[in-house]
């Protein structure tokens, strides 16, 4: 009989599951015939942290413009998980960055990726092109407590740029 650690490693190497075998199942509805499901480019032990998400239409993003790029998919997350939409490095080097990237577990509408073109030229995104990355995150509902003061910490209130530029 294989050990639990060996079975977990086998799961990771095959690209299935998390270290504890608790990969969430996420239902994906294709709302457009050309839509693609999110895909991890690299799986297994050293796999990607986020899955690629694809544009379902050609979109021209003018310099300085912000647009919502359609993906043609909707998702159903378990109540315990959601997702963060993040930049793809290939678009980031072209000056395109993502905005408003939180997908709550109760959202059932089309995933649209809000992007801003920070470059001086129009950037063309083609249908089928990877537009962003989808990082699956566990939902944690924190309890916020008002206090009169905070405990001391080495960093204190040192903020932006406090560790050097």
UniProtKB/TrEMBL annotation:
It catalyses: dUTP + H2O = dUMP + diphosphate + H(+). It is an enzyme of class 3 (hydrolase). The keyword Hydrolase applies. CDD domains: trimeric_dUTPase. Residues 1-24 are annotated as: Disordered. One of its GO terms (molecular function) is dUTP diphosphatase activity. Residues 52-164 form the dUTPase-like domain. Its EC number is 3.6.1.23. Keywords: Hydrolase, Nucleotide metabolism. It holds the Pfam family dUTPase. InterPro entries: dUTPase (IPR008181), dUTPase-like (IPR029054), dUTPase-like_sf (IPR036157), dUTPase_trimeric (IPR033704). The keyword Protein biosynthesis does not apply. GO terms for biological process: dUMP biosynthetic process; dUTP catabolic process. PANTHER family: DEOXYURIDINE 5'-TRIPHOSPHATE NUCLEOTIDOHYDROLASE (PTHR11241). Belongs to the dUTPase family. This is dUTP diphosphatase. It comes from Edaphobacter paludis. The lineage of its organism: Bacteria, Pseudomonadati, Acidobacteriota, Terriglobia, Terriglobales.
């Amino acid at each position: 009989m294989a050990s639990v650690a060996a079975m977990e490693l086998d799961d990771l190497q095959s690209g299935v599951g998390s270290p504890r075998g608790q990969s969430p199942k996420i239902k994906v509805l294709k709302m457009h015939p050309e839509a693609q499901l999110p895909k991890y480019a690299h799986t297994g032990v050293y796999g990607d942290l986020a899955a690629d998400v694809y544009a379902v239409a050609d979109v021209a993003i003018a310099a300085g413009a912000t647009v919502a790029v359609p993906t043609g998919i909707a998702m159903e997350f378990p109540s315990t998980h959601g997702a963060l939409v993040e930049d793809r490095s290939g678009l980031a080097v072209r000056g395109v960055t993502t905005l408003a990237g939180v997908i709550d577990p109760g959202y059932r509408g089309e995933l649209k990726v809000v992007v801003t073109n920070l470059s001086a030229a129009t950037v063309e995104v083609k249908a089928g092109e990877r537009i962003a990355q989808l990082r699956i995150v566990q939902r944690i509902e924190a309890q916020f407590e008002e206090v009169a003061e905070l405990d001391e910490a080495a960093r204190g209130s040192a903020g932006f740029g406090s560790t050097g530029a």
